[in-house]
Design a protein that fits this description.
The complex is a heterodimer. Chain A is globular and about 75 Å long. Helix content of chain A is about 75%, strand content about 0%. Chain B is α/β, with parallel strands linked by helices. Chain B has one domain: 3-Layer(aba) Sandwich (Rossmann fold). The longest helix of chain B is centred in the last third of the chain and has 16 residues. Chain B is globular, with a radius of gyration of 18 Å. The chains are: A mainly alpha, B alpha/beta. The interface between A and B is medium-sized, with 23 and 31 residues.
Chain lengths: ~250, ~250
């Protein structure tokens, strides 16, 4: 079965040289794709998690008593929302990366930066998407009536408890559709990590079509299909979540 | 708090010469009143007269500019006061119920004792079920607020407040948002509470109800208490022209 599959694409490459699906019949190229997908998944999952955390914490800090804290959050949002994410990525890696400490490798003389290019990609993309998430959650928080929070505080809830137990669960539900959009964008934006040589799917794909120009169209096709599937899974999951969180008799 | 010498022969809520402004608008212009333990008092008056503001000042949802409010000897507006100490003593029910829409009726009642007082869950649940029964909502434990009528939601809100074992209950126009046919069930619940000896402070427009359950009626207008007295005297022999005018419009 697998043999026949590989044979089909090997034959196709011979008959139609522009359609060289080399990764379907050459194991080495296949492994590059698999490895690329793994990094894309790693970046996506890590950035989704961290950017949501940043959004939740940032939205909480936006309601802080201290003007300095509120201004700082606002400054953060302005910076990351109003500058290109690709430039942010380069800045994090090349500028900030220079000032982070290094560690010595096993050989005793190679120096490795404490934060790898993958680390920087996760950090910069999380902050980028996190800036939008703060705004998204803030909109959700504003939809929670002040009077509901008053009820909580009259029951003795502290500000943090009110946020955790009442405001956030309600705001989160309101925010989900907008959050969904932003996370979809985030997953697609992970391809920018190619700019600092993170070996994710785009990086590996470019590698393959540089080595085998005849594989260019098929590899692009593979990129599209992979992202459609990846984003599809994310959207499906978010949708299921939205349904699961629906409160009977509320907000419809 | 450690020097709190309050005992229950003193007023449980003592309001002295309270002034409160929202910006340039002075809403309370020197209000004083005392409530003894177990008393039921009703505050009535035209809208905008400051009655809701006054009741909200008692549990520090609003701050005050001058004067003093003490609950069981605790100075409510002392910035050093642990707010939790106040909130444990004072329960509040709102006009719009303000239940937590993402929690069932039972969870609404259980939440504060578990999260705020850190009481063990099974003990709280037992008490919460008893409270739900007390407000006559057995069978509705697992319903979400959105699935309940206004009157039912308001009774859950009363149970939720009682779960904290308060010594004083504040009711802020709790029937004003209800359909007429559900007003009664809420009033009956409050009456039960009052008869059990709970100290209650109500802001209300239900004059018949006020007359029936209150030990003392206060009439506020434009930020001051114009007149007060026991219900019979108050309703039948109001002395101040403003009170008489208000009563003639409403009764």
């Amino acid at each position: 079965m697998l043999e026949a599959f590989m044979e089909f694409f090997r034959q196709l490459a011979e008959d139609a040289p522009r359609w060289n699906f080399i990764f379907f019949y050459e194991e080495r190229q296949w492994l590059r794709i698999v490895s690329g997908i793994k990094y894309t998944l790693l970046l996506s999952v890590a950035c989704v998690i961290f950017s949501v955390i940043i959004g939740v914490v940032g939205a909480w800090l936006q309601g802080a008593k201290s003007k300095f804290v509120r201004r700082s959050v606002q400054g953060y949002i302005q910076f990351f929302r109003n500058t290109p994410p690709f430039v942010q990525l380069l800045f994090f890696y090349f500028a900030l990366g220079q000032f982070t400490p290094t560690i010595l490798g096993d050989d005793g003389w190679t120096e490795y930066p404490i934060i790898s290019n993958i680390g920087w990609a996760i950090i910069s993309l999380s902050f980028f998407a996190g800036a939008f998430n703060v705004e998204i959650f803030r909109a959700g928080i504003e939809a929670v009536p002040e009077s509901t929070q008053e009820a909580a505080s009259s029951l003795g809830f502290s500000r943090l408890q009110t946020y955790k137990e009442v405001v956030l669960p309600l705001a989160f539900r309101v925010s989900l559709p907008a959050l969904n959009n932003n996370l979809v964008n985030l997953v697609k934006t992970t391809t920018q990590a190619i700019g600092i040589a993170v070996p994710e799917l785009l990086y590996e794909s470019v590698g393959i079509w540089n080595d085998y120009p005849s594989a260019q169209y098929p590899t692009m096709l593979l990129l599209f299909v992979t992202f459609i599937l990846l984003v599809g899974v994310l959207v499906y999951g978010m949708h299921r979540w939205e349904t699961a969180l629906k409160i009977p008799g509320y907000g419809s | 708090m450690e020097n709190n010498t309050w005992s229950d022969d003193q007023p449980i809520v003592s309001i002295q010469n309270v002034h409160k402004s929202f910006g340039a608008l002075e809403v309370l212009k020197g209000v004083s009143l005392d409530v003894m333990k177990g008393e039921v008092i009703c505050i009535i008056g035209p809208s905008g007269s400051g009655k809701s503001t006054l009741i909200r000042c008692i549990n520090a949802l609003n701050d005050i500019q001058a004067g003093s409010i003490k609950v069981e000897g605790l100075e409510v507006h002392d910035s050093k006061l642990d707010q939790l100490e106040l909130r444990k003593r004072v329960g509040m029910v709102f006009q719009q119920y303000n239940l937590f829409p993402h929690k069932t009726a039972l969870e609404n009642v259980m939440m504060a004792p578990i999260k705020v007082l850190k009481q063990p869950k099974d003990e709280v649940e037992k008490r919460a079920r008893a409270l739900i029964e007390k407000v006559r909502l057995q069978g509705k434990e697992d319903a979400y607020p959105g699935e309940l009528s206004g009157g039912q939601q308001q009774r859950v809100a009363i149970a939720r407040s009682l779960a904290m074992n308060p010594d004083v209950m504040l009711f802020d126009e709790v029937t004003a948002a209800l359909d007429p046919e559900t007003v009664k069930e809420v009033l009956v619940t409050i009456k039960d509470l009052a008869e059990e000896g709970m100290t209650c402070i109500l802001v209300t427009h239900e004059m018949g109800f006020a007359r029936e359950i209150a030990d003392h009626i206060y009439f506020t207008d434009r930020g001051v208490i114009v007149e007060h007295g026991p219900p019979d005297t108050f309703f039948d022999n109001a002395s101040d022209p403003r009170t008489r005018e208000f009563l003639s419009q409403i009764l």
